[in-house]
């Protein structure tokens, strides 16, 4: 029973985070991307270009395209198709359509396109990083990538990049060269922001602690920080004294507590702390 309650709690927390990240993405796209016709990034970029030829608004076109892609995803990918991706895709599409009804924007928020481009990149990219970190996505061209990966041998990353590049080139003709160049800048910068945000979210501290009395430190790691550690024997090359080496990995907030504890209780201990954003195992990604 308690296990089921814990699973329900984690699921609620996950979807709460997904909902918040989706709302941030909707805000960034609707307020900064749509009014400036910045045509980079998947379905919303396509919708901005198509809105000049079709009667629908960018939000409604995004909704229609995402519905078609979701149906294709369920048909071609089957039950393994991500529920989280479907949830985020529907919520984002509906959110954009509702925003156009409730908060219509006839012109950009400011007269500074560079400033608005920054927000049009950072806010959706920040949300995308959260989605990817939770094994979800905002749908759109990510669904196309999942379908192509399953049924073809194409290089998915290159295919998606060139499709986005085609949208950017079209925006130069549909709107103007300035809009196209802004869109190109957004396309190039978006992947950098996503990568940096994911790395920052996953950043952990890797401790190598060399000391003579490992028990108090290990007790603090296990009982206070609720982490684990590995201990092995070592010998110093200068005085040939027997030492113990403790290896442990934890989140940044916990790392500060451990560092302060060691400096307070065993000031002679040698501590090496390095950053790592790829930790796979129990208590971290992959085997939680």
How would you characterize this protein structure?
The chain is of the alpha+beta class. 63% of the residues lie in helices and 12% in strands. The strands form two sheets. Strands 2-3-1-4 form a four-stranded antiparallel sheet. Strand 2 and strand 3 form a beta hairpin. Helix 3 packs parallel to helix 6 (141-151) and helix 5 (113-133) packs parallel to helix 8 (177-202).
Please render the helix and strand layout as text:
Layout: H1 2-33, H2 42-50, H3 58-77, H4 83-102, H5 113-133, H6 141-151, H7 156-174, H8 177-202, E1 204-211, H9 215-224, E2 230-235, E3 242-251, H10 252-265, E4 270-276, E5 280-281, E6 285-286
Parallel strand pairs: 5-6
Antiparallel strand pairs: 1-3, 1-4, 2-3
Quick recap:
The chain has 288 residues and is an alpha+beta fold. It has helices at 2-33, 42-50, 58-77, 83-102, 113-133, 141-151, 156-174, 177-202, 215-224, 252-265, and strands at 204-211, 230-235, 242-251, 270-276, 280-281, 285-286. Strand 2 and strand 3 (242-251) form a beta hairpin.
